[in-house]
Amino acid sequence: MSARVGVIVVGHGSTASELLAAASGIVSNDALSGVVAIDAGEGETQAFCEQLCDAISREEHDFLIVIAHAGNEFYELPSPRTKRLYRSLVDLGADAVVSHHTHAFSGYETYRSKPIFYGLGNFLYDWPGKRNESWNRGYVVRLSMSDRIGFEIIPLKQCDEKAGVFRLNDQEQEAFLKEVERLNGIIADDRQLEASFQAYCEKVFPMYDAFLEPYFGKGITALRKRGFFPRLLSARKRLLYLNLIRCESHREVLLRLLKKNE
Fold this sequence. Notes:
Blueprint lengths: L15 H5 L2 E4 L5 E8 L5 H11 L7 E7 L10 H13 L3 E5 L7 E4 L2 E4 L19 E9 L3 E10 L6 E3 L2 H19 L1 H23 L5 H8 L9 H12 L1 H12 L3
Parallel strand pairs: 2-3, 3-4, 4-6
Antiparallel strand pairs: 1-2, 5-6, 7-8, 8-9
Helix pairs in contact: 2-3, 5-8, 7-8
């Protein structure tokens, strides 16, 4: 389908080499760009990113754009770890990093003259009951490439008063850009970013507590070993645990929750 309509896709495949393959396309001023996609939700992301960037030859591409599927859902800022990760992608050779996944738009920064966008928000995701909220706002990024990379953000609203994707009016755009600037200010200040992420963690700790809290104790464990007490974790619950531990964004919150008991 994507090939028929001329849309280039990345980040899919059945082998590691296919997943690491970059989509190439001619962009402005005849510069050749390589676009790669990563899912920063599983495994050692830093090592994977190094492998990914090594796989993209500078002899073949003038620009490298990394699209990252990562972040804490419904949180409007990157965690301090995410900020370090995306900056490391630039250190490894990326000319731009564009992140999505959290269902909340975030800010951006320019690091070593390279733009990093920490969350585009939703593009088209109609959810009954979600109206006139941050859920219904987002933006797309237009990149321009010549001797250096430039960008423009285009604010959008989706599935609010009616289904579809629409440009903001002047008043809406002014309010949106003001909020993005506020987020940019927090991203630029490591102390504020840490404080904001800790506040987010405190807010979601009860949810993560519920994820983790089975009944336990020496007596129950002994009874379970002898078959006198049923397993409290269903297969579905075990898969949830697997996702919480494997996904770096979830694991980051879990670590902060569990360290409260140290």
